[in-house]
Structure formats: structure tokens, C-alpha cells
Amino acid sequence: MTEKEINIKFHEYSSIDELPKQDQELALAAIEAMRGSYAPYSHFNVGAAVRLSNGEIVKGANQENAAFPSGLCAERTAMFYAGATYPDKSMVSIAIAGGVMGRLAKAPATPCGACRQVMAQYQLKGGKPMSVIMLGDGQIWKFDRVDDILPLIFDSI
Ligand code: THU
Q1: pTM
Q2: How far is C-alpha 37 from the chain's CA centre?
Q3: Distance 39 CA to ligand 1 centre (A)
Q4: Looking at residues 61-70, what average pLDDT do you find?
Q5: Chain Cα centroid distance, residue 24
Q6: Residue 74's pLDDT is what?
């Protein structure tokens, strides 16, 4: 038996101004997207913004439903819209913002497992790394590729 370890590298920033210019724009778009959140049950507003290979930004927000599984996270709302509207463009980056009443939560918005798997799929489809930016109030994390937040990724069928 050999014990193995998986190390994950990521970048931490303390404000949006510290991010590279393109990421600043994407981060602000994710925060802006929180306004589209429909969360009458959790009251937790999530916004996501996807940067496409042509430079365009596509936004999404969480949409809840009385029949709970019928709702959808902000990230998948944005990615499915991007995938359906721009099928020939790859997704270069996604930024995620979460909080209440338009105020960012302290902790960075970490995507759920299902959203990570969907990110993995679009990264595979695009053939290039998709970076993931998780925004918190005073704490921002950037991962260079989806593999870093979904180790041992499933992509083989
Ligand atoms: N939510 C997202 O939109 N993205 C995530 O990655 C995690 C959770 C939403 C789903 C639900 O509407 C609310 O946040 C509370 O879980």
C-alpha cells in the first residue's frame, strides 16, 4: 500500500481590484447577476458569469421551485444558456457570487458537486482549461482549471 496525496493550487485575492482586468469584469458581472436570483425558499442569492472564447459574458442566477429538485443553481443556469446559445464557443472562465439581498457572503461561493461536473463537461467540450473564480467579501479564490475543484474528474464514456 502506498499513501498518496492530491495537492490543489489556487490563487487568493483580498479584493476584486487585485484580479487580472478580464476577471474583474467577470466578477462584477457575477455580482450583478445576483439580481436575477429567484430564491423564495432559501433566500440565498447566487449569480454566475461565464466568459466565452469570443470575449462575451453570459450571466445566470439561481432559480428555485416549490418542487425543490426542479430549481437550478446559478452556475448551471449560466452554463446551459451559454451552451445552448453559443454552441461553437468554449467557456474560458466562470465567476460565482453568493449572498443575501445583493450583499456578498464572507466566504467565497463554492459551487456544488453537480455544477462542478457540468463545468467539467464544458471544459472537455471546449478542449481548454476553464478557470473558476469564487467570490467572497474580502476573500476571492481563483482555480485555473475545473480539475482543481473536481479531482479525479469523470470524463470517460
Ligand atoms: N446554489 C447555487 O446557485 N449555486 C451553488 O453552487 C450552490 C447553491 C443555490 C441553490 C439554491 O437556490 C440556493 O443556492 C441555496 O442552496
Answers
A1: 0.97
A2: 15
A3: 9
A4: 97
A5: 14
A6: 98
**Average pLDDT of the segment spanning 93-121:** 96
Q: How far is the CA of 74 from the centre of ligand 1 (A)?
A: 7
Q: How far is the CA of 127 from the centre of ligand 1 (A)?
A: 27
- Residue 115 CB less than 6 A away from ligand 1: yes
* Residue 62 Cβ contacting ligand 1 at under 6 Å: yes
Compute the chain's Rg from CA coordinates. 15
| Residue boundaries of the structural domains of the chain | 13-148
DSSP secondary structure of 108-151: --PPPHHHHHHHHHHHHHHTS--EEEEEETTEEEEESSGGGTST
Amino acid at 57: I
Domain covering 13-148 in this structure, CATH number? 3.40.140.10
The finding on whether 39 has its CB within 6 A of some atom of ligand 1 is yes
